[in-house]
Amino acid sequence: MSIRVMVADDQGMVRSGFSILLNVQPDMEVVGEAANGAEAIARSAELRPDVILMDVRMPVLDGLQATRRITAEEGHPKVLVLTTFDLDDYVYEALRAGASGFLLKDASGQELANAVRVVAAGEALLAPTVTRRLIAEFARLGTPRAPSCKRVESLTERETEVLGLIARGLSNAEIAATLVVAEQTVKTHVGRILMKLDLRDRTQAVVYAYETELVRPGD
User: Fold this and answer.
1) Burial class (CB within 10 angstroms; exposed 0-12, middle 13-18, buried 19+) of 200
2) HEC profile for the chain?
3) Which of 136, 140, 160, 174 minimizes the C-alpha distance to 208?
4) Model pTM score
5) Torsion angle, CA of 109/110/113/114, rounded to 10 degrees?
6) Residue 33's beta-bridge partner residues?
7) CA-to-CA distance for 52 and 11, rounded, in angstroms?
8) CA 155, CA 160: separation in Å to the nearest integer?
9) What local confidence, expressed as pLDDT, does residue 75 receive?
């Protein structure tokens, strides 16, 4: 089955360009577009896409507010935020709003398609560049949330170790190499971590690890 994608951006040329790049993929179909956050919410409810490419800076309602409202719904689509890392300071806010990852606006067609596939599959697209910015933001804020001891204590020693590596931006393959275990074993650990901590994906796991001080900036 094709991955159903919606593109939300206030620039028509960006919407058209992304739509053309995705529609030529054999496993994807762009089912709609939106020019602002309010329209994105309405079109999402109407079209039920699997993935939404969401710009941050849009009129009427910005991408962060739209993401927060869309991901609050049952069975919501995955949101892949469109960003220019040198200009946008929204990484932390977008993760808190429920975004599953980030994509550079100047990404190639192949990078765009791969990003959509990763997010549609339930993984998080959290590049090292994003992780560094996220860590810097936690360092700036300096005030973690009080952890839920019951939830933290539910993790095994190995699961806690895996969570720490996720928070440092390592992929499953990199974690497997670090711990000298099979990649499938890492995937199993990640699944259990998300289930025990009641988290949506590994992006939320990164936020959780820093907010509860399981990992600290600079570690």
Assistant:
1) middle
2) CCEEEEEECCCHHHHHHHHHHHHCCCCEEEEEEECCHHHHHHHHHHHCCCEEEEECCCCCCCHHHHHHHHHCCCCCCEEEEEECCCCCCCHHHHHHHCCCEEEECCCCHHHHHHHHHHHHCCCCECCHHHHHHHHHHHHHHCCCCCCCHHHHHCCCHHHHHHHHHHHCCCCHHHHHHHHCCCHHHHHHHHHHHHHHHCCCCHHHHHHHHHHCCCCCCCC
3) 160
4) 0.71
5) -150
6) 7
7) 15
8) 6
9) 84
Angle, CA 218 vertex, CA 140 and CA 201 arms, to 5°: 80
Partners of 54 in the beta sheet? 8, 81
R_g over Cα of the chain: 17
Give the amino acid at 142.
G
**Residue in 85, 86, 97, 92 with CA at minimum distance from that of residue 40:** 97
Q: At what angle do helices 172-179 and 183-197 cross, to 10 degrees?
A: 110
182-200 pLDDT per residue, tens = 999 999 999 999 999 988 7
Residue closest to 101 by CA, chosen among 58, 138, 67, 60: 67
Structure tokens at 182: 């099979």
Under 8 Å CB-to-CB from 91, ≥6 apart: which residues? 83, 85, 102, 130, 133, 134, 137
The residue with greater pLDDT, 13 or 126, is 13
- In whole angstroms, give the CA distance from residue 171 to residue 127: 9
Say what the pLDDT of residue 87 is. 46
C-alpha of 78 from chain center: 8
